[in-house]
Amino acid sequence: MNVPFQNIKSSLVFFLVGSILTTSLHAAIGVKDDEGRRITLYQPANRIISLAPHITESLFAAGAGDKVIGAVSYSDYPEAAKKIPRVGGYPSLDVETILSLKPDLIVAWASGNNMKQVDKLAALGIPVFKSEPRYPLDIAKTIKHFGILAGTTEISTKASNEFIQHYMRLKKQYSNKTKIKVFYQFWNSPKMTINGKHLISKMINLCGGINVFAGLHSITPKVSVESVIATKTDVIIAGDKGENKSQWMSEWAPWVQVPAVKNEQIYFIDPDLLNRAGPRILQGADQLCELLEKVRKH
Question: Are 170 and 286 in contact (CB under 8 A)?
Fold first, then answer.
């Protein structure tokens, strides 16, 4: 049976239009990363590599945990993350292992990873999302973006909204309280802190605190005991799980010129909560805000 040429032509046009529409729909899966680069996928990512612990946490929060096939060292939360194959450490990646896993998306830490290695992976055609949250609500945006890329938007949108609501509750409750001078110490030898650009400093502000070293140039500067004395800080918050508590306390004990030492206002917060730019940072903020309130009452 001969099929009229017009019918064949119509069918071909219909097929081509359908193909274009389908491709267009897939191309709509895209977001801008934290460097403003457009990341576009033609289908939701199913084989994701996470290159930082905080990224791993955010991927799980976005409902994409079961799609993470590789992660760097210290990606230990939630519990399921411990079972994910390792692809090196965040400052030094195992590129061969990453390639062998055949990822369809890599999520990198812009300031923490070896960018030469990351760019090498991107040059091979693997989509790379660069993450660098600088403000608390950037974390909510990141979770939402991960959900878009992984096709888990229902979960990620809910998690993102809950983060925003939690943040706004803390802001309403604490940000207008009497200001407390805070020295945040995340390392003891040498003593190291954070400046005003660091995300932890934003959490101190959220709780009604003032980062006494906010004005320093380096984002993680070394400081002397004498410079801490000069700040007359009201409280010292140590980013430590408590394993080094006795050592840190004994080192500060002689320096009673510091109001925080004299008044015994030295406290410890698990660094995984405040140091990681992931969803648990608000758990750290809860503790931080409660401690500053304790200092106010004292």
Answer: yes
- Beta bridge partner(s), residue 157: none
How far, in Å, are 61, 145, 229, 231, 262 from residue 254 at the CA level? Answer: 44, 49, 12, 17, 9
Residue ranges of domains in the chain, CATH in brackets: 11-165 (3.40.50.1980), 175-297 (3.40.50.1980)
For residue 99, the SS3 value is helix
* Residue type at position 24: S
What's the token pair of residue 267? 């406290």
pLDDT at 99: 97
Instruction: Note the pLDDT of residue 196.
Output: 96
Q: What is the pLDDT of residues 97-110, one digit of tens each?
A: 999 999 999 999 99
CA-CA distances (angstroms) from residue 81 to 55, 65, 72, 109? 11, 8, 10, 17
- DSSP character string of 13-53: HHHHHHHHHHHHHHHTEEEE-TTS-EEEESS--SSEEE-SH
SS3 readout for 170-196: HHHHHCCCCCEEEEEECEECCEECCCC
Contact criterion met (CB below 8 Å) for 178 and 230: no
Considering the entire predicted model, what is its pTM?
A: 0.87
